Amino acid sequence: MKYSIVKYIGLVGALLLGGCNDWLDVDPKSQIKQEVLFESEAGFRDALTGIYTVMARKQMYGGNETMGFLDMVGQVYTDVAYDYTDVLNYDYEATKVEQCIDTIWRGNYNAIANCNHILANIDERKNVFSSGVYEAVKAEAMALRGFLHFDLLRGFAPSYLRGADKAAIPYVEKVTNEPIAQLTVAEVIDKVIGDVETARELIREVDPIGPAHDSYTEQGYETEDYIQGDGFWLYRKSRLNYYGMTALLARVYLYKGDKENALECAKEVIDSKKFTLLEESQLVTTKTWGLLCSENEYISSLYVYDMEKGRSDVYFGEESSMKCHISDTRRASVFGTPGEDIDWRNQNMFFLKTGEAKTYVGKYRGVNRIPLLKLSEMYLIAAEASGDKGYLQTLRDHRGYVNYPLEENCDLAAEIEAEYRKEFIAEGQLFYYYKRLDYVTLPEMGVVMTGNYVFPMPDDEIEFGDIK
Predict the structure, then answer these.
(1) Is 295 inside a domain boundary?
(2) Where is the SusD-like N-terminal domain (predicted)?
(3) pTM for the full model?
(4) Residue 228 located in a structural domain
């Protein structure tokens, strides 16, 4: 048996207990002890909010795990800033690449540790909660733990298709500084499913966006809505809500190859009618593509208060520090004919800054949320899991192809791949799609992916044995 442990897993909450004054208002000269933080409902709510805030940092889902590193290794971009060309070449030992990989590993496990701090304390303090909050906080912490482990698995272990019985990552379920055993890929998948299924049942009846409530809106909140519970129940699409957990299960089951359960979960989200695909009439408004999608199609997302300056200007544009660029030739290839002319994404997701020569991704302009799970993915999962091209045609109709139906005997797998390449630009999902299906080479790319699908675990975070 081989063991691994990341050094910060055993810390008594690096985010909760120290160095956290950027999201929790604490005296930087002191540390918050668990018994103080968790003596009230507000403390639990703040701790949970802190996890989302940390996930939204550029080192994690606010950059590396969406629009940055993961889309670089997914070959979404034609070129990037000079310091990051090694990422496109899969040189995982290069300094900048190693830094990106390390921050994903460290960041996810740090957030997992804080999920575990909440879960370690919540049951014995159940009496401090008002109606429904205990269930919601516990469910979200548990589901986030599954979400974070799943992405670590997708990055740092072989795919389920390639090696379900291969050694994967530690699945950390408690606050400890003891060695944590490496599980196999299949075992980690089952742990993720167990956590998220349990969480989903726990939150089902109390989530305002869940099936127990007929309608839900994130517009027109009154002052008293923010006062009640400090606004905890507002903006459920910016959290891992009931349907976010259901959508996550659809993603995990498909990764496992369990198409029956993947389809069931995807259909539950679609049939809920709590989320809607964009209509052409909405595009005539002054709202940006990203804002329209966030209001209608995002199932779960992360709030980023400085999206323009802190994200778009960092990743997209001539003067950006990472300069993630898709050439016109690549765009023409991705969207094809007639998509280059009629696809709403090609028409609305890109921008040309004044005085610049290149067109860059602009899907995050005018929006303050980064998607974790979207309705469009549920249609793609449903199409793949069922073999029914009707799900794919519905998505295409809402992307400008209503007059271009799929051929009766179309290659459904090829059409789904084409939609993934268009739909998930700057979201970090394309690399995982290729890995799940074990692509030997990526579309239009000559590089052979053997060995490139598994990120190396940080050397200085591995102890007590050899990790393979």
Answers:
(1) yes
(2) 22-204
(3) 0.92
(4) no
